[in-house]
Recover the amino acids of this structure.
């Protein structure tokens, strides 16, 4: 049975379900990926299953419950396929507005029950706390509740969706705390998180593996994103895009690495995933998707495997990245 507990013994790919949640908003700004067609989303999930994908990552926040509902329907006859979801952000399923951050344990318990209903699962394989920046002590009531739900068999494991290494270390001794979900890609190599994850031997779920589409191969300097989706709405916590277009700095880094990433017959997206597998053996990239064609492209990465050490060294030689300060809780 698939799970989110063990470190992969070979390159492993999951899929992220943010984009299939449809529109939702925070403080009036779009933080989804625009309108979606549920039938297309279901077809894309079926395509992923045909490729052997057995890990899907979603969240209560994605579409304010809609992503979970679509995924639950698509996987109703596939109980052995593992699902991770995220809690800690209040949602209004009618207005599609996020309702703030949650640490109250009883609210967490009720929200997980709601996720179980939408996902059509008695047991959720992995639950992650979704609030990236909170200090560890503020999240303790939530993790105490997750530990109880783990002991009761309601969840199979739990962890934190955070980019703060010290936050991960704070709960690694909790029974059932097995995973961290953090941002990483060839443009942002997470130099502080990777050593921590490897030291603690945690599963590393990689969000933004394609830099929100910058590394997907479909967009260039002429692309413009509307303000009805996150890449055009400027919510303030992503820097790949400005005024609805990819920034010049990230385009320059993309162009510097394109030839290596697309070597050996890979697409650009496949090369970006291959870089992550070579970066750390703990990694399970979870790129987002909308269509069956996108899923086919992403799953093609499995046919190629990781980049070679020589290719990784060459990228480090030619790529000049700004230094990444160690993320801190707020």
């Amino acid at each position: 049975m698939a799970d989110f507990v063990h470190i992969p013994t070979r390159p492993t790919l999951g899929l992220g379900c943010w984009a299939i949640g449809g529109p939702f908003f925070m403080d009036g700004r779009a933080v989804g990926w625009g309108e979606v067609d549920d039938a297309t989303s279901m077809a894309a999930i079926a395509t992923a299953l045909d490729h052997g994908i057995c890990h899907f990552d979603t969240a209560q926040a994605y579409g304010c419950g809609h992503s979970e509902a679509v995924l639950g329907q698509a996987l109703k006859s596939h109980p052995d396929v593992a699902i991770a979801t995220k809690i800690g952000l209040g949602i209004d399923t009618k207005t599609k507005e996020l309702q703030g951050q949650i640490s109250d344990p009883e609210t967490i318990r009720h929200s997980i029950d709601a996720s179980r209903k939408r996902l059509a699962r008695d047991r959720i394989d992995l639950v992650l706390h979704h609030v990236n920046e909170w200090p560890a002590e503020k999240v303790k009531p939530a993790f105490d509740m997750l530990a109880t739900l783990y002991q009761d068999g309601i969840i199979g494991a739990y962890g934190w969706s955070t980019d703060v290494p010290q936050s991960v270390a704070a709960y690694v001794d909790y029974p059932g705390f097995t995973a961290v979900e953090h941002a990483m890609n060839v443009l942002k190599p997470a130099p502080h998180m990777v050593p921590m994850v490897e030291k603690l031997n945690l599963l590393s779920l990689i969000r933004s593996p394609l830099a929100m589409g910058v590394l997907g191969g479909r967009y260039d300097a002429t692309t413009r994103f509307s303000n009805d989706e996150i890449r055009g709405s400027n919510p303030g916590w992503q820097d790949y895009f400005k005024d609805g277009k990819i920034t010049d700095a990230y385009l320059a880094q993309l162009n510097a690495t394109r030839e290596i990433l697309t070597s050996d017959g890979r697409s650009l997206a496949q090369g970006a995933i291959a870089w992550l597998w070579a970066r750390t053996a703990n990694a399970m990239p979870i790129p987002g998707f909308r269509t069956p064609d996108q899923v086919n492209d992403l799953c093609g990465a499995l046919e190629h495997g990781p980049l070679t050490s020589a290719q990784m060294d060459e990228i480090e030689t030619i790529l000049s990245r700004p230094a990444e300060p160690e993320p801190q809780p707020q």
User: Anything to note?
Assistant: The longest helix spans residues 136-151. Residues 15-318 form a domain with the TIM Barrel fold (CATH 3.20.20.100). The radius of gyration is 19 Å.
